[in-house]
Amino acid sequence: MTGRARMAACLMGLFLLLGGQAVGAEAGQAPVIQPESASIPSGESDPEVLLDGVRSTKWRSQAGKVEVVLPEEASALYLEWDFAPATWTLQADGEERTVGREQFIHAYLPLEEPASRFTLSWEGDATLCDLYFLGEGSLPSWVQQWEPPCDKADFLLLPTHADDEHLWFGGVMPLYAGEKDLAVQVAYMVNHNTEPYRLHEQLDGLWTVGVENYPVIPQYPDIYSESLDHARTVYSQEEIIAYQVGLIRRFCPSVIVGHDINGEYGHGAHRLNTDSLLQAVELAADETAYPEFSAPPWDTPKTYLHLYPENAIVMDWDQPLAAFGGKTAFEMAQEGFACHASQTAYFSVDQSGPYDCRKFGLYRSTVGPDTTADMTQNLPEPEPEPSSPPAAESRAESVQAERPASSQPEEVPQETEGGGLSPLAAAGVALGGCALLALAAAAVLRR
């Protein structure tokens, strides 16, 4: 190939690449439809903050109303909230429905009939970050289709903070949720409501590693504790134990996975979480304990603790997983943690050293000891829950990979009311660039 032909080929390749991005969807993929007009009747905010694909630009309102007109019909909506209202009302071409009872902050809403005119309204305090209108086609991998929490969980993971589930539990979620399609329920000890960007990182990370059931996030705030004794002064351990007993009886897990007794690097809240769990797992099985709870007692067959030295196993996180295109559970744990952009400067997922994410011990068992490194050993074969979201393989490239460019995480989280370049403007720039590249390629070939 001549130098001239090579140059033309490169220009045309770049043209095609940009062209694919400009339309916002691969072949057969549902496009993001840019509104013809949008308004917030109260005048409280510029509607552009809801359409720019930037989570840090948002609108908080006590009684919100947004009106949108599209140039073509949409088949679904996708919303990202910092704080979702208890319920909200959607009018689509005049047809009204009440939605959002689950209060998922990443909410996919398919429409019964395609529509082009929308009014969203709610009462009460809520903060809406982004609003997407999707056309017909397969969904982009960044669209998260959450199922409600499990009815019956195969695994109950009890991390303290958002990111602990990747750092310390390693490949548990990629292997058992993503690859083996088991019902994995994650329930945290604290929330990150004062740092809303962490709420989005939390869901992005779980979705990346194959979890499909929405996590349980309690009312306890994130407060740093240097020791177990200090943690007991900022949290009520009695309340934490009752919360965990309620979780165990609600989800009836076959396997529980908890923190290191010493809190990994000594974090007091990690230690309180596990110290409470050691009591809760016994109380949950006690018919005389918590008679006010509606759920019956549950005796969990297997309880694992990170780094527990007795009945120890070392998990193999290095086997390729078909659900993630051949990536390993360890690689997927790393990808899940990478979604926590605000935390990656401080920690990393490790398969060595003092906090090795492969190492667990069987703290309690009703089904006998382990003889292999498999947390489901000695358990009856579970029946996978039916689920509507796509297989984990479709999101193995990470939730960020196919997101509109303006939706990529910011290096430093910033909470603003500002705008930024909208996807529509970005598309115009990209299309203009495509046209210039096509002309340049043609000119090269004419020489």
Broad shape: globular
**Helical proportion, percent range:** 25-40%
CATH homolog superfamily of the largest domain = LmbE-like
Instruction: Give the H and E element order.
Output: HEEEEEEEEHHEHHHEHEEHEH
CATH class of the largest domain, named Alpha Beta
> What structural class do the secondary elements suggest?
alpha+beta
Low-confidence stretches: 1-23, 406-447
Estimated radius of gyration: 24 Å
List the helices and strands and how they pair.
Blueprint (H helix, E strand, L loop, with lengths): L2 H20 L14 E3 L19 E3 L3 E19 L4 E5 L2 E5 L6 E16 L4 E9 L20 E3 L6 H4 L4 H8 L4 E3 L9 H13 L19 H7 L2 H15 L3 E4 L9 H16 L18 E5 L5 E3 L14 H10 L20 E7 L57 H24 L1
Parallel strand pairs: 8-9, 8-10, 10-11
Antiparallel strand pairs: 1-3, 2-7, 3-6, 3-7, 4-5, 4-6, 11-13, 12-13
Notable traits:
447 residues; alpha+beta; Jelly Rolls; Rossmann fold; 2 domains; 7-stranded antiparallel sheet; 6-stranded mixed sheet; disordered N terminus; disordered C terminus
What does this structure look like?
- The protein is α+β, with helices and mostly antiparallel strands.
- The protein folds into 2 domains: 8-140 and 403-446, Galactose-binding domain-like (Jelly Rolls, Sandwich), CATH 2.60.120; 155-395, LmbE-like (Rossmann fold, 3-Layer(aba) Sandwich).
- Helix content is 26%, strand content 19%.
- It is built from 9 helices and 13 strands.
- The chain has helices at 3-22, 164-167, 172-179, 196-208, 228-234, 237-251, 268-283, 329-338, 423-446; strands at residues 37-39, 59-61, 65-83, 88-92, 95-99, 106-121, 126-134, 155-157, 184-186, 255-258, 302-306, 312-314, 359-365.
- The strands form 2 sheets. Strands 1, 2, 3, 4, 5, 6 and 7 form a 7-stranded antiparallel β-sheet that branches.
- Helix 7 (268-283) links the parallel strand 10 and strand 11.
- Helix 1 runs antiparallel to helix 9.
- The two termini are 15 Å apart.
- The relative contact order is 0.16.
- Residues 1-23 and 406-447 have low confidence and may be disordered.
